[in-house]
């Protein structure tokens, strides 16, 4: 009889452990999924921004292309020219998503390209640089 009782206790302990793991996975799974969903939605609303500098290589641009593709943005580049210092002096960027598209070329034979911000904000793709200050007119 003592043997049966310890046998029953060990089975009961196993079942309690499995039951508690099962409850834990059901209780905490929705919270984890909800947190991931909130993070994804926040990223979609806040947008994503990537910076392209004069020192970008073709490899870095292809990595950026793949990163944008995973986010639902088609990113292409063309007319890529470098100076002897291996700095970009000309580039054409094309960005597309379901709602918008953008095509822009930066070119200056004497200077390198400015720092270019590319990405998506509120569902609209963009590519811009801050090389020219805004002029406020009265």
Blueprint (SSEs and pairs):
Elements lengths: L1 H45 L1 E5 L5 H13 L3 E9 L5 E9 L4 E7 L8 E6 L2 E6 L9
CA radius of gyration is 27 Å
Strand content: 25-35%
Average of the residue pLDDT scores: 78
What is the terminal-to-terminal distance? 98 Å
Number of domains: 2
Number of strands: 6
| Strand neighbour order, sheet with most strands | 1-5-6
Main sheet: strands, sense, barrel: 3 strands, antiparallel
* Gross geometry: elongated
* Unreliable parts: 132-138
Query: What's the oligomerization state?
Result: single chain
Give the SSE order as H and E letters. Answer: HEHEEEEE
**Range of helix content:** 40-55%
Number of helices: 2
Which structural class do you get from the secondary structure elements?
alpha+beta
């Amino acid at each position: 009889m003592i043997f049966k009782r310890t046998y029953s206790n060990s089975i009961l302990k196993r079942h309690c452990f499995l039951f508690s793991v099962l409850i834990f996975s059901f209780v905490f799974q929705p919270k984890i999924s909800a947190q991931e969903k909130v993070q994804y939605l926040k990223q979609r609303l806040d947008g994503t921004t990537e910076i392209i500098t004069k020192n970008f290589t073709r490899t870095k641009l292809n990595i950026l292309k793949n990163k944008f593709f995973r986010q639902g943005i088609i990113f292409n580049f063309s007319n890529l020219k470098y100076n002897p210092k291996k700095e970009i002096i000309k580039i054409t960027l094309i960005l597309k998503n379901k709602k918008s598209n953008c095509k822009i070329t930066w070119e200056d034979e004497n200077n390198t390209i400015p720092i270019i911000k590319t990405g998506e904000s509120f569902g609209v793709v963009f590519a811009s640089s801050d090389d020219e200050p805004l002029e406020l007119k009265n």
